Amino acid sequence: MIVMTLIMAPLSRAAIKQGTIEFMMGRYSVSEPRFTAVYKEGGAVSGLILSAMLIRDFNFYLEIKYFKKTGLLTYTQEKSDFYLLPISLGVRYILPLGIFHPYAGAGGDFYIYYEKNPIGNVLNHTTGLHALGGVYVQFGKLPFFLNLKLKYTRARAEEQGKTLQLGGWEYGAGLAFSF
Predict the structure, then answer these.
(1) Is the pTM of this model over 0.90?
(2) C-alpha distances in angstroms, 46 versus 14, 34, 65, 85?
(3) Is there a contact between 80 and 117 (Cβ–Cβ < 8 Å)?
(4) pLDDT tens figures, 134-173
(5) What is the CATH number of the domain that holds 131?
(6) Which structural domain, as residue segments, surrounds residue 93?
């Protein structure tokens, strides 16, 4: 096993040497209890991830995702729509181990959000921090990878004197093309 890893490591390292473009889908759960009272538990999130190698095994990434939930206001039971555009920048360490490339990283976030319901509309933004971990799995000698990831974001917003936690857990999978 060690010999196989040593033989495959140079091939794998070269496969993601410069960067990736990735299409990602997953599930996002806002951890604010007031949010879950209106919109229930989590929902689908999708997006695009771009990355570039900075120095050996350290990777810079940019994530742009989209999240939408529809729910019912707690008192009036009227329809409410919530849209979130999370933009994340960060650095991660990728450890090439044959066809597996586990990684861990952290970075900053910029969240743009919009809520529309009969009570009123809110368009605002906030910042946050995140930590993530996952693994890329290489498909043979092809420049394609499966990405399995888990991420936690802490992003607090303030609306009408109340603090809201728009961050939460995200998990998902993506298909990355290495160039």
Answers:
(1) no
(2) 28, 23, 5, 10
(3) yes
(4) 999 998 888 999 999 999 999 999 988 889 999 999 999 9
(5) 2.40.160.20
(6) 2-178
- How far is it, in rounded angstroms, from Cα 49 to Cα 72? 32
What token pair was written down for 25?
A: 């889908």
**134 near 152, Cβ under 8 Å?**
no
| Contact by Cβ (8 Å): 165, 32 | yes
Q: Residue 55, SS3?
A: strand
How many domains does one find in the chain?
Answer: 1
Q: Locate the DSSP E strands across the chain.
A: 19-30, 43-55, 58-72, 79-94, 100-117, 120-138, 144-159, 162-165, 168-178
Confidence grade of residue 128 (pLDDT, cut at 50, 70, 90):
very high
Residue (of 122, 41, 117) closest to 73 by Cα position: 117
Query: Is 13 a residue whose pLDDT tops 50?
Result: no
Long-range contacts of 13-18 (CB under 8 A, 24+ apart): 13/57, 13/96, 15/138, 15/141, 15/143, 15/145, 15/178, 16/53, 16/59, 16/94, 16/96, 16/101, 16/136, 16/145, 16/178, 17/53, 18/52, 18/53, 18/178, 18/179
